[in-house]
Amino acid sequence: MPKQNTVFKDAYNRCLRLLVVGESLPSEPELCSLLGVSRTTVRSILSQMVEAGLIEWNKRSKSVQRLPVKTDYFPEHETSSLSDVIERTFMKRILMGGAEPGMQINELELAREIGVGTTSVREFLIRFSRFGLIEKRPNSHWVLKGFTRQFAEELIDVREMFELKSAAAFAALPTDDPAWAELEALRRAHVEVLADIDSRYLEFSELDDRLHRLIQQASDNRFIIDFYDIIAIVFHYHYQWNKANARERNGKAILEHLDYIEALKTRRPEAVEAACRLHLSSARLSLMQSLATAA
Amino acid sequence: MPKQNTVFKDAYNRCLRLLVVGESLPSEPELCSLLGVSRTTVRSILSQMVEAGLIEWNKRSKSVQRLPVKTDYFPEHETSSLSDVIERTFMKRILMGGAEPGMQINELELAREIGVGTTSVREFLIRFSRFGLIEKRPNSHWVLKGFTRQFAEELIDVREMFELKSAAAFAALPTDDPAWAELEALRRAHVEVLADIDSRYLEFSELDDRLHRLIQQASDNRFIIDFYDIIAIVFHYHYQWNKANARERNGKAILEHLDYIEALKTRRPEAVEAACRLHLSSARLSLMQSLATAA
DNA sequence: GGGCTGCACATTATCGACAAAGAACACAGA
DNA sequence: TCTGTGTTCTTTGTCGATAATGTGCAGCCC
C-alpha cells in the first residue's frame, strides 16, 4: 500500500477541533493555511465530515451539525508519518537496547521489524547518517557507531564553538530586531515554569530547544543552524529515556538560562561569553554524567 | 533493470591492468582486497576473463594467456556508479546552467532527464541536502537555495572555525604520530609540482584535498572531518568549471601551503594560526572573486 | 592447520507501479 | 474584479520485485 494517508488523518483530527455548532467552516483556501495542507486534502476532510454527519456541505456553506465525539478522531498512532515512526523505533533501539558500537544494521531486518518497506528505512538511514551515529559501507551494511562518550564529546565540542559564535552575533543584533522581543517572551516563560518547577520541570526541554534555536538563528549561518538539529535530536531522545535527577537538573538549567538571557540583554561580549560557557559546560557535565550511569 | 553492474565492470577494468603474460593471478581472496570487491565479483571477473581468452582458470591456477587490448576494457562511462552520474549531472546543472535560487527541483523530471529511476534521484537529493544547497518541502518539491555569495560566506566561516581548531590540534600531535610523516610526504609533493608548475598546476586540487583532510583528521572530531566533504565537493565542482586564472591562483596557493606546512612543523601555535588564517583568507578571496565573475 | 575454492544464501541497489497529496486552471458567484 | 469552487493533472511517498553484489559454511589442497 503506497502512502498511508497520515497527512489526511492528522489534519482531519485537527480540523475536528475547529468545529463550533451553528457556525460554518471557513473557505477552503482558508482551511488550507489553517491546517497547513493542500486543498485536495481539505476537500477530502470535508467529504469525510459530511459522511460522518458532522457538517452539511454545499458549495460555500459548510454548516456544523454536531460536535465531534471521541470516536470521530482517528487514533493517534495512525497520524504520525512513517519517517517519524521509523525514527522513534530506531532511536529507541540504539539509545536504549543493546547498542554496541560496531554492530551491523540491516535494512531488511529493520524494515520487517517495523513493518514498512525497505525504501522508507533506507531513506531514513541516509537522512539519519548526517548525525554521525551510523556509517554506510556501500553495497553492504550500515555500521552503528554508537552513542558513546566519544560521540558526546565531539558533539559538544562543536556545539560550544557554534554557540559562542551565535551568542556573540546575538548580542550584536540591532536593538529593534524581533529576536529581542522573542528573547523577552522566552525569559517570561522561564520564570513561569520556574515558579512551579516541581510540577512543570518537564517543560524545560521545550524551553531549552526554543532558546538555543533562537540564539543559533542569530548566526545567520545555515550550517550552524542545521547543526542544532543534531544536538536537539540527541538531547531529546536521550533525556526522554533518562529522567534520573531530571527535576534537579532542569531547575539548575533554568537558572543558568535566566543568567544567560540577562547576559545577552546587557549586550556586553564578555558577559555573554562567560554566561554561555558556564551553561554549556554545565550541560556537558550533565550529559556525561547521565551517560556514565547509563553505561 | 535493477543495478547496473558497474562494480563488476570497474573492477574488471582494473583487473585487466594486473595481467602479466606468463604469470598467474593471485588467489581469489587476494584479488578481493586488491580490487576492493567481494569474492562473488572476483569470480565473475575471472569467468569473464576466461570467456575473453585472457586467462585459463582451473582452481588455483589462473594463468595469463594474452595481454588485454583496448577493446577488452569496458567503456569508461559504464563504470561509474549511478549516484556518481546523478551527482555530476546535478552539480553541472546547479553550478553552471541557470540555477536561480528559489527554483524548484522536480524529482521526476530530474530522473527522466538523467534516465534513471526516481528512487535513485530521491536518495541522492536526500544525501545531498546536507550540503545546504537544497531544502525539502515535505510532500512537495525541493527548493534550490543556490550557490550564492551568501552560501559561500557561510561555508567559509565555518571552515575557518574548524580548520583553526584542527590546525592547533595537529601542531599538538605527538612527535611520533604518523601524520608528521604524511605531512612531509605532502610537502615533497608540493615542491615537485611547484617545480613544474606551468604544466602541472592542475594537480593542485588533489594536493589541496589531501593536505586539508590530513589536518582535519587531527581534530579527531567526526563533525569537523565530515564537514570537509562539503568544502571538497563545492571547491571540486566549482573550480572544475571555472578555470580562469587557475595557473596563477594555484601557484600562489602552493606557496601558501608550503608556508602553512612549515608553520605546522614548528609546532608553535601562533605561527600555525597565522599561516592558517593567511591561507584561508586567500582561499576565501579567490572563491569570492570567481563567484563575482561567474555571476 | 591454515588458507583456498565451490556453493548456497542474504542483502543491497534499482526499477516500475500506484494511492496520497499537491498544483494549475477555468468557471462561478459575490 | 476578486475570491472560492469544481475539475483535472502532476508529483511525491511507499511498496514489492529482481539482478548485482556481498557473506557464510563445508570440504579440499598444500
Description:
2 copies of one chain form a homodimer. With 295 residues, the first copy, chain A, is mainly alpha-helical. Chain A has 3 domains: 6-77, Arc Repressor Mutant, subunit A (Orthogonal Bundle), CATH 1.10.10; 82-144, Arc Repressor Mutant, subunit A; 149-294, GntR ligand-binding domain-like (Four Helix Bundle (Hemerythrin (Met), subunit A), Up-down Bundle). Chain A has helices at residues 6-16, 28-35, 39-51, 82-95, 107-114, 118-128, 149-171, 178-195, 197-200, 204-217, 222-240, 246-266, 269-294, and strands at 55-58, 61-64, 104-105, 134-136, 142-144. A 3-stranded antiparallel β-sheet of chain A has the order 3-5-4. In chain A, helix 10 (204-217) packs parallel to helix 12 (246-266). Chain A is globular, with a radius of gyration of 23 Å. At the A-B interface, helix 6, helix 7 and helix 11 of A face helix 6, helix 7 and helix 11 of B.
